[in-house]
Amino acid sequence: MTVQVEVQTFPLFINGEWQQAKSGETFEVFNPATGNVVARVARAGEEDVELAIKAARDAFDKTDWKNMKPKERAKVLNAIGHGIAEHAEELVYLETISSGGTVRRVSSNDVLQMVDLFNTMAKFVKEYPFSETLPSPPFPGPAHNFIWREPIGVCAAITPWNMPMLIATWKIAPALAMGNTGVIKPASFTPLTTLKLAEIISKFVPPGVINVVTGPGAEVGEALVRHPKVDKVAFTGSTEVGRSIMALAAGTIKNTTLELGGKSPNIILEDADLDIAVPGSLFGVFLHSGQLCESGTRLFVPDKLHDEIVDRLVSLTKTLKPGNPLDLATDVGPVISKKQKESILAYIEDAKRDGATLVCGGNEITVEGCENGHFIEPTIFTNVTNDMKIAREEIFGPVLSVIRYSNIDEAIEMANDTIYGLAAGVWTRDVNKAYDAARKLQAGVVWINDWHMLRNDAPFGGYKQSGIGREMGRHSLDAYTQLKHVHTSMVPEAHRKTWYQLLFSNTNQS
Ligand code: NAD
Question: Which domains does the chain have, with CATH numbers?
C-alpha cells in the first residue's frame, strides 16, 4: 500500500455533518504495529449522544426515509456498495493502521464482503415480505388481515475493534435496508473506518439516518443503551459486556441483539485429509492473530493421529511470517494493544502452570521496523484438557489448545462443554460423519473441511452465551423490523359480529 493519510482529527458524525464534541475533547488512536499515533478522534459525552439520537429520531419520525419503496431502497443500498468500493483504498488503509488486520486480508476479504453485503441486502429487500395477507378464517369471523413488517426506529450499534468496518456493516446494512436510522458507537481503538463509512453512506441517505459517536463504552455506549428514544441495540463484543448491555437494556425493554464471544471447537476425524485439515485448522485459529470471535481455538485430535498432527501443526506454524500488516508479505500482524498482549501472555503462563505443554511460540516478539508494536508468536499447547483455563476462556490471541480424544462421542461432548456456541468445525472425508457431527455440535455455524467461511446470504450468530439473534442473511432483516397485525372486519352489522354476543344479551337489534 502506498497511500498515506496524515495524522488528522476526526470529529463526530452527526446529522450528515462533521461536528466537534461539545467538550472539545479528543482521544488518540494508535497503530498497534508501531505504537504511533495515527489519528485524534472526538471524545463524545452525553450531550453529543443526545444530539446524535435526536438527529436519528428526527430522520426516522419526520422524513420519508422509512416509507421508501423497496425498489428505491435497493438502489440506495447498491449505491452505498458502490461508494464503499470507490473508497476501498482509503478504508483498507485506515482499517489496517488502526486494527492491525493484515492488508492482505482487509483488502481481499473485508472490503469486498462489505460491498457484497450491501448488494445482497439490496437483492433481499426487493423480495422481502413487508406485507402478508392472511386467509379469511371462520374464526373470529370474516375479515381481511395483514401482517406488516415495519422498521423498529432508532437503532444503536455498538461494535468491537477486531474487524471494525466489516462488523459495523453487518448492523448498518440490514438496519438501512428495513428503513431504520442509527447511531453507531465504534470501539475506541478503531473508530476511523466507521466514521469514514458514515461519511460515504451519508451521500445516499437523508441527514440523520446515520450518525457516529466515538468515546468510552461505559459512557457513550451505556448512554445509548439506556436512552428511551433508542428503540434497538445491536451489540458485538465480549460476553461480559454483552451481559451488562442486556441488563441495562431491560430498563427500557429494548429490542436487543448480541453477537458475543466464542471458544470454538474444531474436530479432526481419523479419516480427515491432513493436507487440508492442518493448514485449515491453523487458518481457523491464527487469522488476525486469533482475534476473531469464531476462531477455532480448541482443536480436538484423535489419539491415533495426535503426534503426526502436532508435528505438522508446529512445522507449518513456524513458517508464518509476523510483520507490519501494511506489508503484503506479512502473515500475522500485531494484537490490538499492550494490555491485550499482556492478557494473552498471562493466559500462556496459566496454561504452563496448569500442566499444558508448550510446543510452539509462547513469547512476545520484536518485529524489525515495528519495535513498539504488540506482537506475539503463534502459540500451540498440547496436553490441554477441556477443563483448563485456556480451554474455557476466550483468550482473543494466537493461542491454540490441542485436546486429545479417543472416540467421536467424547470429542463432541467436550466440544459442547462450553458456555459458548458461536462456531464449530469438523474435518473428514465421510459426508455422513460430517453431517452427524454438524447436527450434534451446538453452534451457530458449523464448517466442514473449512473455517471462517461466513457468507452475506447466510445467518451468523451464537448459541448459548455467544449471543442472541443473527446477522447477515435474510434472517438479519427480521431483527430490524417489528410486526404489526392489521385486521379489517368484513361484517358491516354490529349484531352479526362474533363479539357482539360476548357483551350484549339483546341480539334482536334491527
Ligand atoms: P468489548 O466488549 O470490550 O467492547 C465492544 C464494544 O462495546 C466497544 O465499542 C466498547 O467501547 C463497548 N463497550 C464497552 N463497555 C461498554 C458498556 N458498559 N456499555 C456499552 N458499551 C460498552 O469487546 P472488544 O474487546 O472490543 O472486542 C472483542 C470481543 O468481541 C471478543 O469477546 C469477541 O469474541 C467479540 N466479538 C464477537 C463477534 C461476533 O460476531 N460474535 C465478532 C467480533 C468480536
Answer: 8-260+464-484 (3.40.605.10), 265-448 (3.40.309.10)
Question: Cα(413)–Cα(410) distance, rounded to whole angstroms?
Answer: 5
Q: What is the pLDDT of residue 2?
A: 47
Instruction: List the beta bridge partners of residue 382.
Output: 357
pTM: 0.97
| 162 Cβ below 6 A of ligand 1 | yes
C-alpha cell at 480: 430490524
Cβ atoms 77, 66 nearer than 8 A: no
What number does the ligand 1 atom closest to the CA of 163 have? 43
Protein residue whose Cα sits closest to atom 31 of ligand 1:
238
Euclidean distance between the first and the last CA atom of the chain, given in angstroms as a whole number:
84
Catalytic residue among 293, 360, 370, 394: 293
- Contact by Cβ (8 Å): 172, 301: no
Query: How far is residue 447's CA from residue 441's CA, in Å, rounded to a whole number?
Result: 11
Look up residue 161 and give its three cell numbers. 475493534
139 Cβ contact list (under 8 Å, min separation 6): 498
**Confidence label for 7 from pLDDT (cuts 50, 70 and 90):** confident
For ligand 1, atom 16, which residue shows the shortest CA distance? 217
Quick check: CB of 293 below 6 Å from ligand 1?
yes
Is there a catalytic annotation at residue 493?
Answer: no
Q: How many CA atoms lie within 13 A of 297 on its CB side?
A: 29
Percent of the chain with pLDDT over 70: 98
> CA–CA separation, 423 vs 431, rounded Å?
19
- 349's grid cell: 503462563
* DSSP conformation letters of 346-408: HHHHHHHHTT-EEEE--SEEEETTEEEEEEE--EEEES--TTSHHHHS---SSEEEEEEESSH
Asked about 370 being catalytic, the answer comes back as: no
For residue range 317-352, list pLDDT tens digits in order: 999 999 999 999 999 999 999 999 999 999 999 999
The continuous run of DSSP H or E covering 259 comes out as strand 255-259
Check: CB of residue 175 under 8 Å from CB of residue 182: yes
Contact 422 CB / ligand 1 (< 6 Å): yes
Output the DSSP codes for 26-69. Answer: EEEEE-TTT--EEEEEE---HHHHHHHHHHHHHHHHHSSGGG--
Is 364 exposed, middle or buried, given 0-12, 13-18 or 19+ CB atoms closer than 10 A? middle
Query: Residue 496 in 3-state DSSP?
Result: helix
Q: How far is the CA of 170 from the centre of ligand 1 (A)?
A: 14
95, 222, 259, 471: the active-site residue: 259
Distance (Å, whole) CA 252 – CA 229 = 9
Q: Which atom of ligand 1 is nearest to the CA of 188?
A: 11
What distances in angstroms separate CA 219 from CA 78, 246, 255, one per listed residue?
A: 35, 16, 20
The DSSP call for residue 157 is E
C-beta of 187 in contact with ligand 1 (< 6 A): yes
